[in-house]
Structures are given as structure tokens and as C-alpha cells.
Design a protein that fits this description.
Shape: globular
Radius of gyration: 22 Å
Number of strands: 8
Largest sheet: 3 strands, antiparallel
Strand order of the largest sheet: 2-3-4
Mean pLDDT: 78
Order of helices and strands: EEHEEEHHHHHHEEE
Distance between the termini: 12 Å
Helix content: 25-40%
Structural class: alpha+beta
Length: 272
């Protein structure tokens, strides 16, 4: 993640939206925050440092830390000034939790409800994976902490009272999809409902390049002597992938006044 504007210490909390950058207003002024010194957060930091993550830790020179604003909202804060183009922090790609199988060609974009079911089955309810990823999963919001309900949790009557027909339509459709997938997978409705909220508010959608392993023979145009050349290359395709990114998912954002950017580094060259 790199800085794209002059840094300020204020982080604007924007609950219920996907993480996307250090949000700020043009007239924002620096405000204080209190560091999150909980054991669960320390466990996450230690876990990520073991994976050679950079730009995080308890040392102020690390550059970032998790904290709470004056309203008790949790987010990611800069602990030092950054110039435009500076790398703020780096999390290795091996620490990302994929919410779809990248080896399977997607015929359509995966819904957040599909991602929620995969999160439950692959991580939260899988004992082995749950243990491996516990330093991260333990920091995620629960119904009792860091949770701001969205229309997914409204009754049909409450949804009907929303002002915009499109929002009403989408909210009802998603509740229906949650119920259908919960029944299809034999998962509790409330677990799928909350996981959907988690995925919609914390996940990132990234683009990756997939090697299908299929050789493609290419024939070049004839040269001046009328000769043609043959070559073989592996077929590559680009595919969208929704992932959970530990630590970075605590970045709150504002679409109009973002001041940082997320970059995906080639895993073959990613030594961070």
C-alpha cells in the first residue's frame, strides 16, 4: 500500500463500506487516537511480522498502528508522515485469504454471499484452517464488537421503508440469496448473514493472472523469404478474486478524498 497524497493522522471512519484507503476530507485536521493494545491485535501483528510484513508494529517508526478514534471506532492510523509515493506498509500475498478458488475459471462474478459461504466453510468452521488463521480471525468484528448492521439485518418491513427502490430491491434479493445458500449448504442462516456482512465490509476484489497450463501454438507472419515460425506459449487469463487482507482491511476509506492506494505485487517477486 502506498501514499497518494500528503499524509494526515486523521482517519475517517466509514462503517459498512469496503476498505479502500486512508480516508480524509480536504479540511481534515490531525486528531489523536488511542492505540489498540489488546492481545488479539498484538497476536495479529506478531503473526504478520513472522511473514516478513513491513510497516506495522508497536514501534512508532513502523509507520502504522491499529487504534480507536474518539468515538470508539477502530481503524488503521499513520504514526509518522508519508510523502506521495511512499510505501506505507506491505503484507505478503501468502497472508491473503482467498474467498474463491482461483484455479477454477469463473463464468460470472462471485457474489458476496458466495464469498461468505466459502469463508465459513474454508476458514471459520474448518478446525485446521481456523487454528492457522486464528491471529487474524480473532481480530474480525463480531456481533458484539465493531459491528454496524446494514439492511441485511433489517426486517422486510424495515427494508420497505427505505427511500430508494433500488436499495429496497437489492436488500430483499440479498436476503433471499442468503436464505437460499444457507439452506443449500446446511449452514445456519444467521452465520451466513453475518459472514456476508463481514465479506462486504472487509474484503478486497483484486485481479490476478492465471496460468491454465495449456500450451498454445502460435504461427508468426511470413518473413521476406516467405518463411513462417512456430512458437509455443502457455495460455494465461485474468480473473477477479475476492480476498480478505489481514491488517489492511482495517483501513477506512472515503472514495472522493482517498490518500493511499493498494497495489498487488507479483508473488514471484514479492519478498515482503
Amino acid at each position: 500500500m502506498s501514499s497518494s497524497s500528503s499524509s494526515k493522522r486523521k482517519v475517517k471512519t466509514n462503517q459498512g463500506k469496503a476498505a479502500g484507503g486512508f480516508g480524509k476530507k480536504e479540511d481534515a485536521v490531525p486528531v489523536s487516537h488511542s492505540r489498540d493494545e489488546s492481545q488479539t491485535t498484538q497476536n495479529l501483528i506478531n503473526f504478520l511480522l513472522q511473514w516478513k510484513s513491513k510497516g506495522l508494529g508497536v514501534d512508532a517508526e513502523a509507520g502504522t498502528e491499529i487504534g480507536y478514534d474518539e468515538n470508539g471506532f477502530r481503524g488503521l492510523y499513520a504514526t509518522k508522515a508519508f510523502k506521495k509515493g511512499d510505501i506505507i506498509c506491505k503484507i505478503p500475498s501468502d497472508c491473503a485469504l482467498a474467498l474463491a478458488d482461483p484455479s477454477v475459471a469463473a463464468t460470472e462474478e462471485m457474489s458476496e454471499v458466495d464469498g461468505a459461504v466459502n469463508y465459513l466453510q474454508w476458514y471459520a468452521m474448518n478446525p485446521q484452517a481456523r487454528q492457522m488463521w486464528s491471529p487474524y480471525i480473532d481480530t474480525l468484528p463480531t456481533r458484539d464488537a465493531n459491528f454496524d448492521p446494514t439492511p441485511d439485518f433489517y426486517s422486510d418491513e424495515e427494508i420497505a421503508q427505505l427511500e430508494f427502490p433500488m436499495i429496497v430491491k437489492k436488500a430483499l434479493e440479498r436476503k433471499e440469496q442468503i436464505a437460499e445458500l444457507a439452506q443449500k449448504t446446511n449452514l445456519p442462516f444467521d452465520e451466513v448473514q453475518f459472514a456476508t456482512w463481514l465479506v462486504s465490509s472487509r474484503s478486497f476484489s483484486i485481479k490476478i493472472t492465471i496460468d491454465d497450463g495449456d500450451l498454445v501454438r502460435e504461427t508468426s507472419e511470413a518473413d521476406a523469404d516467405g518463411l513462417k515460425g512456430n512458437s509455443e506459449t502457455y495460455k494465461m487469463r485474468e480473473q477477479g478474486l475476492r480476498v480478505l487482507l489481514p491488517y489492511l482491511d482495517m483501513i477506512n476509506h472515503e472514495s472522493d478524498n482517498y490518500n493511499s492506494e493498494l497495489h498487488l505485487i507479483d508473488p514471484e517477486k514479492d519478498d515482503a
